[in-house]
Design a protein that fits this description.
The protein has 239 residues and is mainly β. Helices cover 13% and strands 46% of the residues.
Length: 239
């Protein structure tokens, strides 16, 4: 009788253990999951660019409120450079002349942004410089006070238009005296892209003559002297 009772109890315990192991807990622990998000390939380029912009890290940002932030000041044969009430001011003292100010840094692929204000109605240009190897070799992406845009290179002391100076087809470039235009220039791989106020105006594939170099701002005149441009909120990011 004791032997039967022991066997029965043993079987009962085993049945309870099996039941406990096979029954899920009433409150299971949370499971960590992750889902890959894929961007549709047919998504508009401007939307993709907006997403990328949100995650860029600024390599340089200068609102020119600090006059000791390191940009050139003074006067040379081409113009005057000065911090002026929270902006960077460049004037061109001669006709058919230009002047630039650089950051004394070295980058390969970058996106440059800057606010440009033409302070008078003279036909003049302003923009940014990327991959400046030296004073005779670099790329320039520019707009003019009349609503034109240009992409060109200065190589071995000679200008070559990559995108010839041409009038905008719409009204993206503001042309009123004192109007502010936000210029964005992407120098990525062999592609140079120019956008103004959020609208892409030109893109060109280069022979990749300059793979890296300095960055900066440039302004100049065409037929008449007296160019007057203010720059603000200069930013350089990795693409």
């Amino acid at each position: 009788m004791k032997k039967f009772t022991g066997t029965f109890l043993t079987m009962l315990v085993l049945m309870l253990m099996v039941s406990a192991c096979s029954t899920p807990p009433s409150n299971p622990p949370p499971v960590s999951t992750s889902t890959a998000v894929q961007v549709p390939t047919d998504q508009a380029p401007t939307e993709l660019a907006a997403v990328v912009t949100e995650t860029r890290v600024a390599l340089i940002f200068d609102d020119f409120s600090d006059p000791t932030s390191g940009w050139e000041e003074g006067e040379d044969a081409q113009g005057i450079f000065a911090y002026d009430n929270g902006s960077y001011h460049m004037t061109s003292t001669n006709a058919d002349a230009y002047a630039w100010s650089n950051a004394n840094l070295d980058y390969a692929d970058v996106v440059l942004e800057v606010d440009i204000r033409f302070n008078n109605n003279l036909h003049q240009f302003a923009g940014v410089v990327c991959r400046m190897v030296d004073k005779d070799n670099y790329y320039v992406l520019e707009i003019t006070s009349r609503g034109e845009f240009i992409i060109r290179k200065y190589q071995d002391g000679q200008w070559t238009n990559l995108v010839k100076r041409q009038m905008q087809s719409g009204y993206d470039i503001l042309t009123g005296e004192g109007d502010v235009n936000r210029l964005t220039a992407s120098c990525t791989g062999s592609q140079l892209t120019l956008a103004v106020n959020g609208e892409t105006l030109a893109q060109v594939t280069t022979a990749d003559e300059f793979s890296s170099g300095d960055v900066g701002m440039i302004s100049g005149t065409f037929d008449d002297p007296g160019g007057d441009v203010s720059f603000d909120n200069f930013k350089v990011t990795a693409p």
